[in-house]
Amino acid sequence: MPDDFMPRAAAPAAERPVPSWAKKPPPKSKATTRATGKITAHRYFAPRDPYDHARKVAENVLDAWYRNFGGSRIDVPLGTVAALSLVRNVSGLADWILNLQPEELPQLFKEIYLGHWIKRPDLINRAVRLHDWAWNPDPDKQQLRAVHAVTRAAINTGLLDLTGHERPWQRSEADVLSPLLTGLRHKSDKKWRGDHHTPACMTDLMANMTVDKDIVPGMSFREPAIGSGTMFRSVAQRLRDLGLNPHDFHWYGNDIDALSAGCAAINAIVWDLGPRCLIGCADSLAPDDDYAKTIAEAKDAFEERDRCMDTATSIVASRRAVRLLDELMADKEHVPA
Q1: 301 torsion bin: left (phi>0), alpha (psi -120 to 50), beta (else)
Q2: End-to-end CA distance of the chain
Q3: How many domains does the chain have?
Q4: pLDDT confidence of residue 179
Q5: What angle do CA 116, 151, 99 make, to 5 degrees?
Q6: Taking the C-alpha atoms of 297, 172, 1 and 127 in order, what is their torsion angle to the nearest 10 degrees?
């Protein structure tokens, strides 16, 4: 966070347009169309408060996961919702996802994560605990059925209405992963971890108190116990209210818990914190320089991405050359003597 944490006079905030969740039409009475038999997205009538909407998404996902005997791996439902949070809500997408079969969902999630890995390999690598299950060559069928139920519950509760907007400030109205992670963890697990996420109302208050018109591009924001990143969300929204771009600032968040750090990494993409955002996973109280470690890990991730892209480019070029050669040979065979 900025060096000076003392409250200052609030700067005038730029007025935002009314978000879509506040002017949603009433829900449709049916979730399927009898003519085609295909499932269509049920229009959830979301509360006007985006925080309540995010909590409702988490509640319905939790209910779907446990009713369908998903098991004890909390990374699976968390990674499912995280993947869906990364897609943009284009017309017809929700209906298309709802009509996928359970065994088709891992491939969808892999493509979503790989698509973002090309842009931000460091953040997707940090979130590996959320998506490594999708690469299982022999997935558990019961778990897939639970993933399918979670997918339907999240979409039908309006997840894409919270996270699928094209404009970043609309995607940043709430943190969906925080209440979900909190709900998935057992009470005793949260106690020994000291895992207590700061409510969004408190992070909004702190951001409004500490971020004002004296903030200038190039400054850094640091959070040593970032959780799912709710504090960063509030700061980013405050910057946008002041007419500033989060891309012009440096962000560094760290958490000792790998799942929390993974959620923060996904949220950094969803909330569009920009290219100068780093998320680490280490003990902030340790004497080691974990910030340097995070930078090194990010550098390695980008170098690995570049190597993979170079290899893919070479393969594509080779196949194109072979195809052209085959076409030339075929044309030559048809030339009359």
Answers
A1: alpha
A2: 79
A3: 1
A4: 95
A5: 100
A6: -20
Question: Exposure of 51 by Cβ count < 10 A (0-12 exposed, 13-18 middle, 19+ buried)?
Answer: middle
Token pair 């979409």 is at which residue?
A: 155
Question: Whole-prediction pTM value?
Answer: 0.83
Q: Check residue 46 and give its pLDDT.
A: 59
Is 24 contained in some domain?
A: yes
Taking the C-alpha atoms of residue 105 and residue 109, their distance in angstroms, rounded to an integer, is 6
Judge contact between 144 and 103, C-beta under 8 A: yes
The b/e string for 146-163 (b: 16+ C-beta within 10 A; e otherwise) is bbbbbbbbbbbbbbbbbb
Tokens of 289: 């320089």
> Does 310 reside within a domain?
no
DSSP secondary structure letters along 144-172: HHHHHHHHHHHHHTTHHHHH--SSHHHHT
Is residue 305, in this structure, part of any structural domain at all?
no
Beta-ladder partners of 164: none
Give the per-residue pLDDT at 43.
Answer: 56
Q: How far apart are CA 235 and CA 255, in angstroms?
A: 18
Domain range enclosing 140: 20-281
CA gap 129, 235 in Å, rounded:
26
The string of pLDDT tens digits covering residues 47-74 is 678 999 999 999 999 999 999 999 999 9
- The tens digit of pLDDT for each residue in 90-100 reads 999 999 999 99
DSSP assignment string, 49-100: SHHHHHHHHHHHHHHHHHHTT--S-THHHHHHHHHHHTS---TTHHHHHHTS
Sequence-distant contacts of 197-205: CB under 8 A, at least 24 apart: 197/227, 197/228, 197/230, 198/227, 198/230, 198/231, 200/51, 200/174, 200/175, 200/230, 200/233, 200/234, 201/51, 203/230, 203/231, 203/233, 203/234, 204/234, 204/237, 204/238
Count Cα neighbours of 298 within 13 Å in the Cβ-side half-sphere.
18
Q: Which residues contact 7 (CB under 8 A, 6 or more apart)?
A: 209, 210
pLDDT score for 39: 74
Point out the residues of the chain with pLDDT beneath 70. 1-37, 41-47, 186-196, 289, 331-337
> Could you tell me if residue 52 is inside a domain?
yes
